[in-house]
Structures are given as structure tokens and as C-alpha cells.
Amino acid sequence: MILLISDLHLEEERPDITRAFLDLLHGRARGAQALYILGDFFEAWIGDDGMTPFQRSICSALRELSDSGTQLFLMHGNRDFLIGKAFCKAAGATLLKDPSVVQMYGEPVLLMHGDSLCTRDLGYMKLRRILRNPIVLFILRHLPLRTRHKLARKLRSESRAQTRMKANDIVDVTPEEVPRVMQQLGVRTLVHGHTHRPAIHKLQIGEQAAKRIVLGGIGTSRVGRCRWMSKGFNWRRLTSSTRSWRCLAPDLQTTRSKCGSGLARECGASVT
Questions:
Q1: In sequence order, which residues have a C-beta less than 8 Å from that of residue 241 and are 6 or more positions away?
Q2: Which of 60, 93, 101, 183 has the highest Cβ tally under 10 A?
């Protein structure tokens, strides 16, 4: 059993999300083979040397899970791309490249955060190329903490303002980019987050049927954990309450509610 989650945007101001995540760590995740975190785990991350007490507590909770025998894998998102080796070492996690291909029941599955697929958002893609440049990353990590705090607040504020002004199709993935990347990497299944638009999209890659599974995030109704077994998969809401959202394949029967956050996936997998 493997769990995958995305876009929790953990921060002290959202204790409900934190409680739901910790419930997962102390519950079902203890029996999992691995937990994959596909980006935007934290709302903001200014560097491993700038961890707050809240972030240290999350790191400790991850370490407890790792020490219990569950493997941890972490992928950068657009909000926490400064997470580094020190945090991963302390948490007992392995930092994954974006994109990464894993084997699930003998099928290669592509895992991504998803922001690199939004190629029509030209302004964001330009900023992304700048911020992910190794030289820029080195400079950012060596700026004074106070400067990094100010820069992070500025970038978050500008990002929210610009997103509200952009058309929905601009901030979503580019339809043509998805099959291109999937074909290039030789996969028929893609799982990603970032857009906060959970859905299962059926695709055609050449003559083969394919699918793109979009994980939910905070601010969406379809969020929770998704169990993928050999006969199919279902989604369950990640929440500290007893209410749940559930999606059962293949007929996609649903039960909805308004609580909880974070989408995860349970399956059998290995990294390649």
C-alpha cells in the first residue's frame, strides 16, 4: 500500500488541515509501504535553516512515520521548492525529481507536481525558470532570513493576485503538453497536483488509452486519500472527522461533505 498526497499547503493558520494530516500519519500511513508528497506540502518554505517550530513539529511527525518503517518521498512544489537535504534527512525522506516515474503493479506511472505543465501561463513559466536556476537557488538560500521572509510574502501576494486575474484555462495544464510529456517518458498514467482541480481525465496516447489523475488540494471538495489496488482505486477524504468524500472506480459513485483536505493514493509501487 502506497499513499500519495499533494497540495496540503500546511501552515499554522490552518490547524484543521494539520490535524487531518497528522491523523493520516498516526493512522493508515503506519501500515503503508510508502508515502509520496507531490509538492506544495507547506504554504511557504524559505530554507531548511529557517524552519519554524510548527514546521519542525511536522518534520518530527514525518520522522516518526519513517522510523516506523514507512518510506517517505518528497517532491518540490511551487511554494516549497527551497526544501533541501537537511529537512529531508531530518524527516527521513528522499527528495524526488520532478518528474519521476514509479512502477505500480508493473505499469510505469509518471508523478509530477504539475506546475511545469501549465505552459500557457507565460509569466509564471518565466518566473519558474528563474527561480529554479541553480545559481538563483544558491543565492536565495544564502540571503538573510529576514530578506527571505519578505520575499516569500511578496511572491505569495503577487501570485494570489495574478491568479485571480488570469483565465481558468491559463492557470490549468496545457492539454497538448500532457500527452507530449507522457509519450516522451513512455507512460500511460500521470498523477499530479498543483491545479487543485481533482479529476480523472481519459486520454489517447498514440493508439493506447491513457489517463491523467489530478489530486485535490485545499479549497476543493474532492480531497482526501485515494486507494489504488490491483482491481481499481477509490478516493477517501483526508479528514479528522468521520464524514468522507469517496470516489469508486469505474462507476465513480460519490459521497460528499465539506471537511478535510489533501488527496492521497494507496497502491503498490516502486521508484525507477
A1: 259, 260
A2: 93
